[in-house]
Write a structure and sequence with these properties.
Blueprint: H1 2-30, H2 34-53, E1 61-68, E2 73-80, E3 87-93, E4 115-123, E5 131-134, H3 139-145, E6 155-157, E7 166-167, H4 169-185, E8 192-196
Parallel strand pairs: 1-8, 6-7
Antiparallel strand pairs: 1-2, 2-3, 4-5, 4-8, 5-6
Length: 201
C-alpha cells in the first residue's frame, strides 16, 4: 500500500515538473522573437503596474478577452489565479473590420466569427507584428455550418488591415500578446475569447 501511494506521488511530482518545464520553455521560446523582446521591453513594466493597481497577482494571473464587433472594441479582463471574478483591465479599439454583423460560416466570407473560443496559436513571427489565433471553427461552428470549407486562421493581430481578423495596431498587440504569454507561461492553459455581434446591455 505504501509503495502504491509513494508511486502515485512520484507520478504527480513528475507531471507538475513537466508542466513547469513546458511553461518555462514556452516563454523562453517566445522571447527568441525580436518582436516579443521589444514588446516586453516596452510594455511589461507598465502592465505589471496596472495589474498591481487592480490587486492582480503578477506572479499568477489569468486573462479573458471579449470582442464586440459593432462597437469595434476588444476588452481584456484579468484576475489573480486564486480569485473567481475577472476585472476589466483595458479596452482596445479594433482599428479595421470586414464583413457584417453575424457569424462566420465559410471560407472567404470576410466575417469575424461570433461565439466562444480560446487562444490556440501564439505567433511571434507574424506578418502582422504579433498574432494570437483563436480556435475557429469550434464544434458549434462545424455543427451549424455543416460540410464545406469553413475557413480558419482567425487572429488578433497588429497592423490595421483585415479580412475577418481583429487588428488592434502594432502598439496595442504588444500589450495583449505580452499579457497572454505571461498568463499562459504561469499556468493558464486556456485563454477564453468571447466574440459578440454587439453589446447586449
Amino acid at each position: 500500500m505504501f509503495q502504491r501511494i509513494f508511486s502515485f506521488f512520484l507520478v504527480i511530482i513528475f507531471f507538475v515538473f513537466c508542466a513547469f518545464t513546458i511553461d518555462s520553455n514556452f516563454k523562453k521560446e517566445q522571447l527568441k522573437s525580436s518582436h516579443v523582446k521589444q514588446a516586453y521591453a516596452e510594455k511589461w513594466s507598465s502592465l505589471k503596474t496596472q495589474l498591481n493597481q487592480l490587486n492582480v497577482d503578477t506572479n499568477s494571473f489569468n486573462i479573458f478577452i471579449r470582442i464586440f464587433k459593432k462597437e469595434a472594441i476588444l476588452e481584456l479582463w484579468a484576475k489573480s489565479s486564486k480569485d473567481t471574478c475577472f476585472k476589466l483591465f483595458n479596452t482596445y479599439d479594433i482599428c479595421a473590420s470586414s464583413g457584417d454583423l453575424g457569424p462566420k460560416r465559410k471560407q472567404g466570407d470576410g466575417q469575424v466569427p461570433e461565439g466562444f473560443y480560446e487562444i490556440s496559436v501564439f505567433n511571434p513571427y507574424s506578418s502582422y507584428y504579433l498574432s494570437l489565433g483563436i480556435n475557429y471553427p469550434n464544434q458549434s461552428d462545424r455543427i451549424i455550418s455543416g460540410k464545406g470549407d469553413l475557413g480558419g486562421d482567425i487572429m488578433i493581430h497588429g497592423n490595421c488591415v483585415t479580412i475577418g481578423c481583429i487588428p488592434i495596431t502594432d502598439d496595442k498587440i504588444k500589450e495583449v500578446y505580452t499579457l497572454a504569454v505571461e498568463a499562459h507561461s504561469k499556468g493558464q492553459a486556456k485563454i477564453q475569447v468571447h466574440s459578440f455581434p454587439a453589446k447586449m446591455e
